[in-house]
Amino acid sequence: MNKTRIRVLVGKPGLDGHDRGAKVIARALRDAGMEVIYSGLHQTPEQLVEAAIQEDVDLIGVSVLSGAHMTIFPRIKELLKEQNAEDILLMGGGTIPEEDIVTLVEAGHAEALFTPGATTTEIVSWIRDRLEASKEVSV
Amino acid sequence: MSNNFLSWKANYDAKKERKGPFFTVSSVPIDPLYAPGHTAEIDYERDLGNPGEYPYTRGVRSNMYRGRLWTMRMFAGFATAKESNERYKFLLSQGQTGLSVAFDMPTIMGYDSDHPRAYGEVGRVGVAIDSLQDMETLFRDISLDKVSTSMTINAPASIIWSMYVVAAEKQGISANKLTGTIQNDILKEYIAQKSWIFPPDPSMRLITDIFKFSKEHVPKWNTISISGYHIREAGATALQELAFTLADGFAYVEAGVKAGLDVDDFAPRLSFFFNSHTDFFEEIAKYRAARRIWARHMKEKYGAKKEESLLMRFHTQTAGCSLTGPQPENNIVRTAYQAMAAVLGGTQSLHTNSMDEVLALPSEKAAQIALRTQQVLAYETGVVNTIDPLAGSYFMETLTNQMEEGAEEYFQKIDELGGVLGAIRENFFQQEIADAAYRYQKEIETNERIIVGINDFVNEGKDKIDLLKIDPEVELSQITRLKDLKQSRDNIRVQTTLSDLKEAAQGTDNLIPKIMDAVRAYATEGEMVAVLKEVFGEYREQAVF
User: Which residue in B108, B121, B450 has the most chain A C-beta atoms within 10 A of its own C-beta, making it the best mutation to test that interface?
Assistant: First the structure.
């Protein structure tokens, strides 16, 4: 399949309602020409993976401010594997301490994690770099 | 404008102006100078009044901080009830004067710790409370008639508050001696913070049930803390925070009146909760305008007669969203300026954020520095010596007027959308906030707005500070305690009280006594929420970005 636009699912797993970051990112990615689906709040990892597969996205971006990042990222990766959807990349952001970022990324539980202070420009170019290397995309 | 002002203006315009921006943190442009012409229309008696006098622009008490300092109330709570209890006792021993309880997300959303949706979130962002047993542990050796307790709980506020009142009952303390606040503000949940359970109508009923029960039995309790804090954190401007919060306040007044209460029966127990961001003068103007708007509407529109009904009393928390991950120690400085704005704005109580809150729950050291920031403010800076010291400043009074005018324009728009609930259904607030949040982010990314350590004055390398870690064992031990409780309690009594609660929810009786009966039987929060969901249903939002 020759896709022309990057498709992203912006997801809010967990029980907290801090959706400012998720919404700002969703809008910035849309402004950058990507197709963005926003999951809405209070999603389980199962719901996010199901939506990602159904919507045929290239990437899931999740925002976690509840402190549950050490369980949420590994769980999403595990579900993607179970569903043979490992080609879908996983990135995230939120209140995640530096050492947890290192642990999660080194263990392959996420491709990239951004902390508060990361710019949307930075995130957009990271996505483009990763996806343009692997497929035909024009945005 | 006078000739004198115009000649200054000509001089100013002839000179070079440094590249700005000269706008507030809410993107409101600020003039280079304010002069008598800006405030010529102000009538002291009508628009300001002395402190403790209508319209209370200068403060709600005649003596303000010369009578009593604000309450230094640090929000804390994590892991289990036992560990939080130890932190509270530590904070009280350090000179803190009120308690403020943070709950974990499962408690906030009405799930017990053993619910599948609670997985990974037990005790993470606050304390896990499943039943009366946890509440008793939370306040062990703290006499509940000696402290005032603020609880940040909204959708299940009726249940958690009932647990608190019953925990006091078990200490032998009667409900009419209890002082404190429950947040209990569901409207701002739909608007900004998004921790809802039930749809709006039954949620408003639970709130008015609390108003009624409190009036009879817990008269010193602040039954709601109408909150702008979360609206601001979600990205709103100072003006939006002010206008949306007051609109919510008026909606609660209207709900109380509609439920058959006299406005003066419950309005004195309404309290507010605002954010304090880094733009010093804008924040102070916001608090001054808030008091004036509230007093004017309560008196003129809602016909309140008691003076206490006109007083906007509020808690303030410094802005979590202003803190930066890089160079976290700089957050101490931001918080100190924000705290000073709150005090110059006449707050009744204050939480100062810890420098590490952008990365984790506060460590003990970071929490202590935050409390010390307030103590330095109170005892060393001298800002408490005179009341409302900025009154009469051309700039301050102009900003205060602009805040009031802007808020009135928003009230009109909200009315046109069918009031607060109508505006929520239309996604009005949600879209306004999302737009403001996006604009702010863009201003930073285009370097139009400078945030120290983020887009300028950046340090190479990582800044490391020690962070609080929550042991993953917390979740398992909490679940074990819950299992033990479910085996040891009288389960027949639990079932009876739960079915009584369900039956009452289907009718119109006050639900609080039924909830308290279930609490006394050690029914869990999740069990009570589940029966209420069967009757009330659950809320879902259409998300906009």
Answer: B121
A40 CA to centre of own chain: 14
Q: Are residues B435 and B499 in the same domain?
A: no
Does residue A1 lie in a domain region?
A: no
Is residue B428 within 8 A of residue B414, CB to CB? The reply is yes
Question: Is residue A119 within 8 angstroms of chain B, CB to CB?
Answer: yes
Q: Is the per-residue pLDDT at A20 higher than 50?
A: yes
Residues B436 and B499 in one domain: no
Q: How many CB pairs below 8 A link A and B?
A: 104
Q: Does A125 touch chain B (CB under 8 A)?
A: no
Quick check: B105 and A14 CB within 8 A? yes
Give the ipTM of the model, two decimals please: 0.85
Residues 6+ apart with CB under 8 A from B401: B39, B42, B47, B289
B276 and B211, same structural domain?
A: yes
Q: How far is B325 from chain A (nearest CA, A)?
A: 6
Whether residue A42 and residue B470 make contact (CB cut-off 8 A), yes or no, is: no
pLDDT score, position A138: 47
Q: Is B116 exposed, middle or buried (0-12, 13-18, 19+ CB in 10 A)?
A: exposed
Could you tell me the residue range of the domain that residue A63 belongs to? 7-134
- Give the predicted TM-score (pTM) of the model: 0.92
pLDDT tens for each residue of B96-107: 778 889 999 999
CA–CA distance from B169 to each of B84, B148, B177, B527 (Å)? Answer: 21, 16, 11, 22
Write down the residue that tokens 């109380």 correspond to: B256
Tokens at B87, concatenated:
């932190």
Whether A53 is in a domain gets the answer yes
The minimal CB distance from B360 to the residues A14, A72, A97 is found for A97
| B521 plus B375 within the same structural domain | no
What is the reported pLDDT for A139?
45
In single-letter form, the type of residue at position B67 comes to G
- Identify the segments of chain B with pLDDT beneath 70: 462-463
Is A94's Cβ below 8 Å from some Cβ in B?
no
Largest Cα–Cα distance in chain B?
Answer: 84
Mean pLDDT of A89-101: 92
> Does the pLDDT at position A36 exceed 80?
yes
